[in-house]
Write the structure tokens for this entry.
Amino acid sequence: MKKKIVRRICEKYALGLVLFVSTVLNTALADSNIIVQSTTSTKNSGLYDYILPLIKQDTGVTVHVVAVGTGAAIKNAMNCDGDVLLVHNRKREDKFVAEGYAKQRHDVMYNDYVLVGPHSDPAGIAGLQNAAAALNKIAESKSIFVSRGDMSGTHSKERELWKYASFAPDAVSGKWYRQTGSGMGATLNIAAGMAGYTLTDRATWISFGNKADLDILVEGDRHLFNPYGVML
């Protein structure tokens, strides 16, 4: 079942994957091993498990993926600890290129973010299409919200949404607002265990196996658009 889901994801992002593979192969012209600095969400989606064996089979190139938050991936790439960078925070990507760490950035694929939470929905956000309004209701009800808290692309998007909501969650960190400092999969597991709300990208949510009592409650807001870029 998971393989079928990942195949659907790959088919949906086919053009982006062609660009990603092309970037990988151009980088690997002089070497049969390359390192991709990537996001945890891309890895958790199952994308690499599906596509990297095909690249190896067709080209002989071995791709090693370092999956961390976007902030850490960019920092690693700035330290020359990678050949290709694939992340999802456009402002930081543009800055990375502008400062000369990469020659150019290409759009590679996209999905969207969703707010997930317990089926009981104590904050009453189900069906809203305004993510900031949903966060305000979570804050007003003091319902558990689980944040990645790791300066990843997803965490940066979450902070942006709290800003739209005119609320500073750091003031209640450790109370109903919990920061994990972990990747998307681990954060979803914690949210499931605590019956809390969290922000996740849709691809990771689709392939996530421990949904427990969590449901997608908010989706469709234009601010939840989630583009990925590839740089070398």
Notes: The longest strand covers residues 105-118.
